[in-house]
Amino acid sequence: MNILRIDASARAADQDNESYRSISRLMADHFFKTVDEKGIEYTLTHRDVGKHPPAIINEFWIESCFTREDKRGYSHKQALMESDRLIDEVDQADLIVLSTPMYNYGMPAALKAWFDQVIRVNKTFDFDPARGDSPLAPLMGGKNLIVLWSCGEYGFREGESKAHMNHLTPHIRTASRYLGVEEMIEIQVEGQEFGDPRHQQSKSDAIEAIEQLIPRIFCPGRSTCRCHPGPGNSERLKAPDRSPPAPTSGPGEHDYARATPSPRKTLSIQWARQRP
Ligand SMILES: Cc1cc2nc3c(=O)[nH]c(=O)nc-3n(C[C@H](O)[C@H](O)[C@H](O)COP(=O)(O)O)c2cc1C
Questions:
Q1: Would you say residue 272 lies in a domain?
Q2: Which end of the chain is more exposed for a tag (fewer CB within 10 A), N or C?
Q3: Atom 2, ligand 1: which residue's CA is nearest?
């Protein structure tokens, strides 16, 4: 399995002062430590947008995108080089593990810069007016996305008081559809700014959730890793189908506003709920 890890926090995970450490990065570290302990085989590409933010797209970048490939000059190609490289990383990935903070109720600017670089016409989606008012369709498919996120406050989960203020994971869900993501799973730590027992509980719940998630992701048949001994090994993993999802019920399925995977999939694995 090819995994693309993306970290978006501006904070590091190895600060001397424990309370300054990035929680979202620590969640991703725990994910990979657990995967390694289970002897699961994978190849990893690591893109740290928190430490090395991608360039913000500009007018010339847009012009370059919309210039036909065979008409692009040297400077157009230069302008798209970073985007090409980042898209290649996404293209190779079967699974994307994204760790991110919530900043100002949405995604960090560095992560938005990454999305702007990788969602590109005729590379990751195409535009066909024959599809009516919903002309966009993803060109890649078959990818899973795990979002490990941390926030300072409480109450962003569905049905809670600030659910409507969570512009982080709904945005990621909508945008990632155009990178071929068909299932998104989120695990959250909340209450970092409070540092109270609820926050501690949220951290332990997230750790437990990560550990329970791994067998479901890597060995759904329970025969592909050392945590579930069996006759098989990594070749038994389902071969990723990189083709884009089959067109569904026509217009309405592929526009930015509506093209989201079934919310039920995420809800069933939205682990880090407060315990009574
Ligand atoms: C610039 C900035 C903006 C933030 N905005 C929010 C916010 O809108 N809502 C919230 O609950 N927490 C907010 N926080 C708190 C962070 O989400 C929280 O500290 C989180 O743990 C950061 O992730 P990290 O620990 O991986 O760095 C903000 C923090 C910073 C630094």
A1: no
A2: C
A3: 103
Ligand 1 cavity residues, CB under 6 Å: 9, 11, 22-25, 101-105, 150-153, 192-193
Q: Whose CA is nearest to atom 9 of ligand 1?
A: 105
Q: Whose CA is nearest to atom 17 of ligand 1?
A: 151
Spacing, Cα 104 to ligand 1 middle (Å): 7
Q: What is the number of domains present in the chain?
A: 1
Question: In terms of DSSP H, where are the helices of the chain?
Answer: 23-37, 59-65, 74-79, 81-92, 109-118, 169-176, 197-218, 263-267
Domain contains 276: no
| Mean predicted confidence (pLDDT) in 208-216 | 95
Atom of ligand 1 nearest to the CA of 25: 26
Q: Residue 232 sits in which domain range?
A: 2-267
* The pLDDT value given to residue 238: 36
Question: pLDDT by residue (tens digit) across 136-169?
Answer: 999 999 999 999 999 999 999 999 999 999 999 9
Assess if residue 274 is contained within a domain: no
Within-domain flag for 273: no
Pocket test for ligand 1, best of 48, 192, 202, 203 (most atoms within 8 A of CB): 192
pTM, 2 dp:
0.85
Residue 244, pLDDT above cutoff 80: no
Tell me the CA distances in angstroms from 152 to 21, 171, 195, 257, one per residue in order.
Answer: 13, 19, 9, 27
CATH of the domain at 86: 3.40.50.360
158: CA distance to ligand 1 center in Å? 19
How far apart are the C-alpha atoms of 102 and 244, rounded to whole Å? 29
Residues 2 and 42 sit within 8 Å (Cβ to Cβ): yes
Residue having the nearest C-alpha atom to atom 15 of ligand 1: 152
